[in-house]
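Please fill in the sequence for the structure shown.

STRUCTURE ENCODING:
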């Protein structure tokens, strides 16, 4: 045991080198793809409703029925939860590297298949789309524990938090890429196939070619995953897994020497025009532009503030502050909600809303990814990170399915087609603020891992300490016996 720990001490003390940054990019591109795939569906669901659920007698464009909308938006989260648990366990059994390639290829295949969803009826298309998005989520789920574990085991203790945070921060660029691709695709289709607004010509407002637009957006997510696959397979096993789980200190030493509901919020505060005043591709373009702006101004800066400050101020302070300011901004949106929905005030609402995303990512969204990769022992690290991530994803599932219903107006005449009355957006924001308060107090149970080695945090260096104590005691006894009697 002492030999393995000496190898890991060297890893903890190693200077930051080029291979650290390479590992960030290789692991981070998986998260780039994850975020793109999970985020892009929210950009095309309005279009799916117009294409497959058009009602010529309705004064408003077609929309996905409640059960279909919940399934399309939430099924990938269900797959992600299952994948986090399964691949987290498998990563500890088979090793990180072997499983890493499996998750990526599953994502590539499912991503392409999602865009090729087939069927002769709307239900058939939605069913196949949901089927493939479940398996897409299953692959994405495996990326969470494996990427976090691999990066934590590669890094030294001085900059470990920043490197894990940098991997996670690639999600922000994935969100941004999703918005940009959707903007480009919708703008290109809109320019090539001009169409009237829905209120002027309901049937003609959605051109047949629009059915290709959402497929292109979804399938594009396979490209970064394919580009990353080769480099993932070239990565060596992490030294910590090799030394502590595989019990091969010599090989470990050798390895060390390589170098969602946002679109509904925007409509509620009148940032987006009413659906009937736009054609299908114009609506897709405006939704994509709005969500891209929030990602650019709130989401991405939050991730990178975490990268720069996590090894300076620590995990605990960032998580506590994140929950505190998320609560403050949620209440700042909810209390004067009617003020924000009046004409001329929607810009202020969007700024406040962007700040909640900033502090989510310069806060618990990042720290709850980083800390589980640090505090568990090597033999269980991937499994336990998968369980922790799955718990977070369970909350996302509740939010994905629940908010669609909860945010509906309390007035039955103002709900979306097929939805029962809900508690309204304002009260939903109060509920979210309450969840943040709960998270704030639970943060006091989280250990601070800044500046400590993984073995110190998990207690895996206790054997060495015991060995040293035994050796010291034995030496003292020998010395005592060597003293001649008086």
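FILLED IN BY: designer on duty
SEQUENCE:
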């Amino acid at each position: 045991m002492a030999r393995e720990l000496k190898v890991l001490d060297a890893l903890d003390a190693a200077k930051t080198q080029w291979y650290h940054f390479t590992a960030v990019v290789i692991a981070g591109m998986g998260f780039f793809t994850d975020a793109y795939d999970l985020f892009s569906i929210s950009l095309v669901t309005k279009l799916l409703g117009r294409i497959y659920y058009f009602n010529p007698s309705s004064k408003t464009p077609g929309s996905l029925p409640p059960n279909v909308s919940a399934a399309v938006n939430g099924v990938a989260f269900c797959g992600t939860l299952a994948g986090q648990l399964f691949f987290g366990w498998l990563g500890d059994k088979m090793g990180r590297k072997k499983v890493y390639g499996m998750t990526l290829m599953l994502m590539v295949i499912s991503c392409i298949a999602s865009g090729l969803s087939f069927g002769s009826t709307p239900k058939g298309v939605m069913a196949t789309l949901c089927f493939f998005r479940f398996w897409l989520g299953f692959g994405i789920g495996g990326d969470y524990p494996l990427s976090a574990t691999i990066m934590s085991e590669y890094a030294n203790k001085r900059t470990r938090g920043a490197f894990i945070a940098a991997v996670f921060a690639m999600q922000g660029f994935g969100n941004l890429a999703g918005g940009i691709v959707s903007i480009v695709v919708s703008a290109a289709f809109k320019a090539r196939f001009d169409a009237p607004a829905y209120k002027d010509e309901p049937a003609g407002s959605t051109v047949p070619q629009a059915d290709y637009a959402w497929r292109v957006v979804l399938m594009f997510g396979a490209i970064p995953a394919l580009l990353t696959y080769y480099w993932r397979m070239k990565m060596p096993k992490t030294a910590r897994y090799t030394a502590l789980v595989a019990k091969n200190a010599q090989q470990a030493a050798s390895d060390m020497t390589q170098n969602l509901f946002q679109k509904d919020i925007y409509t509620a505060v009148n940032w987006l025009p009413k659906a009937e005043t736009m054609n299908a591709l114009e609506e897709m373009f405006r939704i994509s532009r709005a969500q891209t702006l929030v990602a650019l101004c709130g989401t991405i800066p939050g991730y990178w503030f975490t990268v720069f400050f996590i090894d300076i101020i620590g995990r605990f302070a960032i998580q506590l502050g994140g929950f505190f300011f998320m609560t403050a901004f949620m209440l700042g949106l909810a209390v004067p909600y009617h003020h924000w929905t009046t004409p001329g005030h929607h810009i202020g609402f969007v700024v406040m809303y962007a700040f909640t995303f900033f502090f989510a990512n310069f806060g618990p969204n990042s720290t709850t990814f980083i800390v589980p990769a640090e505090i568990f022992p090597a033999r269980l690290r991937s499994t336990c990170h998968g369980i922790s991530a799955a718990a977070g994803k369970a909350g996302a599932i509740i939010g994905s399915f629940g908010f669609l219903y909860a945010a509906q107006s309390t007035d039955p005449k103002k709900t979306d087609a097929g939805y029962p009355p809900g508690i309204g957006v304002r009260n939903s924001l109060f509920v979210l603020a309450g969840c943040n308060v709960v998270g704030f107090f639970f943060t006091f149970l989280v250990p601070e891992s800044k500046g400590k080695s993984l073995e110190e945090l998990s207690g895996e260096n206790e054997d060495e300490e015991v060995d040293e104590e035994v050796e010291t005691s034995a030496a003292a006894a020998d010395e005592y016996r060597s003293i001649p009697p008086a």
